[in-house]
Design goal:
The complex is a heterodimer of chains A (119) and B (108). With 119 residues, chain A is mostly beta strands. Helices cover 0% and strands 51% of the residues of chain A.
């Protein structure tokens, strides 16, 4: 059974930093691209970042480019999102997602971790 | 960036009725790389359809997807009580991957 468990969310002040982690199990982690998508309270879904299986290809939404860094550790079956210079508009539930094989649709989702940026 | 516009914003239907949801892209979606997701309150979204028309694992056959180019449709042939939720389309043909704003299917 595929499981994705996010951690690291919480309350942070504007301008602060936070590192999200996602522990993956139930599939060959090193064979799949991974992703982060966020959802602000009461709003729709916003893609944040994607990383290919070997970290060769990395993509970011313009809204987070230069502030967020996605990474992965295939030996630890883990995905990360380093978030710097956080803004109020970054407040959202952040989901860790597994991609379909060789593609960027999202076939498994974690339950999400809430990030709140507020003074 | 490809903008996806979903319509209608809200669909009010009764159980047993047919639901037709639309997703229109601002430019052609490469290779029909279009997916549909269902989200219920307090839950993470769930993949329903990928490649415009392929059902994901475990998805009932009352859910079907169609379309190509800029116009895509999700059809639920007969609504079950558990199908009342918000539905999102997503294109993954060109970065940045983008989502539609969602269609809420509510009980009439």
């Amino acid at each position: 059974e595929v499981q994705l468990v996010e951690s690291g969310g919480g309350l942070v002040k504007p301008g602060g930093s936070l590192r999200l982690s996602c522990a993956a199990s139930g599939f060959t982690f090193s064979s799949y691209s991974m992703n982060w998508v966020r959802q602000a309270p009461g709003k729709g879904l916003e893609w944040v970042s994607s990383i290919s299986s070997s970290s060769s290809y990395i993509y970011y939404a313009d809204s987070v480019k230069g502030r967020f860094t996605i990474s992965r550790d295939n030996a630890k079956n883990s995905l990360y999102l380093q978030m710097n210079s956080l803004r109020a508009e970054d407040t959202a539930v952040y989901y860790c997602l597994k991609s379909g094989y060789g593609s960027y649709y999202f076939d498994y989702w974690g339950q999400g971790t809430l990030v709140t940026v507020s003074s | 960036e490809i903008v996806l516009t979903q319509s209608p914003g809200t669909l009010s239907l009764s159980p047993g009725e047919r639901a037709t949801l639309s997703c229109r892209a601002s430019q052609s979606v490469s290779s029909s790389y279009l997916a549909w997701y269902q989200q219920k309150p307090g839950q993470a979204p769930r993949l329903l359809i990928y490649g415009a028309s392929s059902r994901a694992t475990g998805i009932p056959d009352r859910f079907s997807g169609s379309g190509s180019g800029t116009d895509f449709t999700l059809t639920i042939s007969r609504l079950e009580p558990e199908d009342f939720a918000v539905y999102y389309c997503q294109q993954y043909g060109d970065s940045p991957w983008t989502f539609g704003q969602g269609t809420k299917v509510e009980i009439k």
